# Entry
Amino acid sequence: MFDPVILSLKVALAAVCIDFVAGMAIARTMARKEFMGKNVLESLIILPMVLPPTVLGYGLLILLGKRGLIGGFLLEHFDFQLIFTWSAAVIASAVVSFPLMYQSAKAAFAGVDISLEQAARTLGARELKIFLTITLPLAWPGILAGLVLSFARALGEFGATLMVAGNIPGKTQTIPLAIYFAVETGDTEAARNLVLVITALSFAAVFWLNWWCRTKVQTWKKGGTEHAQCEHH
Amino acid sequence: MLSANITKKLPGISIEVSFDFDRGILVIFGPSGSGKTTILNCIAGLRQPDKGHISLDGRVFYSSADHISTPARSRRIGYVFQDYALFPHLTVKDNIMYGIPSRCKKGKDYRIGTLDVLNMLKITHLQDRYPAQLSGGEKQRTALARALMVEPDILLLDEPLSALDHGNRKALQGELRELQRIWRIPFVLVTHSRKEMHALADEIIFLDKGKKGTHVFPDMRRAGLDLANLSESSPTYAVSGFTV
# Structure
């Protein structure tokens, strides 16, 4: 019962870390820069959200498999097999949940008034300082929404994970896989418990996000007085 | 001395202006869309002219001939934006201290004290508030304090009084003149208001769409040039022959 829960949390957290780093870099660039082929690149980034997970799983299998471009390279040079490991589950979850992180972060970055960054430049700030002290804090509510949504999506990932990581109890069997196979084998009690756990986890993540946005962000958006009133309500 | 010779093409408009300016308040006056803010942005380093030369006290900020373009952060220019551009997630005090290098904050060896600037602009009591809690005039003073805290060599102000009511505008006009006198750095102020121009200008650049900017010097004003009769639609006409 606990193995799939802990594994799911581990996989989802690792996937979200990848999404966060890649999302920050790509979303920041896409929100501010215009270049040729931007629309094509953006469509490719969003594609995992609209494609069936099995299609993604198949694509990843080709890339990460023993004879795949990445999988073959790792096996040959580092004697490391990626497929059917929890790392493969992380990659599958990261790819499937990335569009949610990207969309939220890009909208958040685009929403930061460019004149604030320019004001910081005239005050002698370097680009890294501007990003860390102005852009990131102002975009943070949107980025956090992206983090929570992609975490919830990664937690629920099933199709692609099954194809690239398999269903190895204790190794790659995450909550959605455990639920499916518990139902298949008629273990309805285990399935019910896991359904309750994943529902509670997902609800807690989204509830916390809503609470955080309502309280913390209001502090500077509306000022302390309104913030206090908001909390009373 | 600020020395600028700027040519910049924008969609539907071409800006051409050339001036040397040493002290006091230089007002860039012109109708909306005549490129006033673009000139400020070129001086500040937020935009690049198509060609020309900009220097301040011998420091070259931009030179198309020598392929020089100093980044905005290194120009030591104070800039008060039209919408103030205060950082909404920082308090007034943190906004004002943003431009102070952290080593100076720690060592407390910065020449101007934050409190002095807060006192001078009468916003000491607002230091723990966020920008959303400030009135238009208070935001304006905070933006001024933030720009001055970095000890700039010149202060650029983009329509600084346009968002204020009549009372605040009158008060801040006086304060701007007083600040310029105390700080002893040149101010370049952009406005489309004739009243503001009269109240504040030591020298004036008239801009009109598609025409070369015209520079009016103090001696020309003293000589009795009737600025009040300058038409907004043809501002260069009344001072033709004085184009720099």
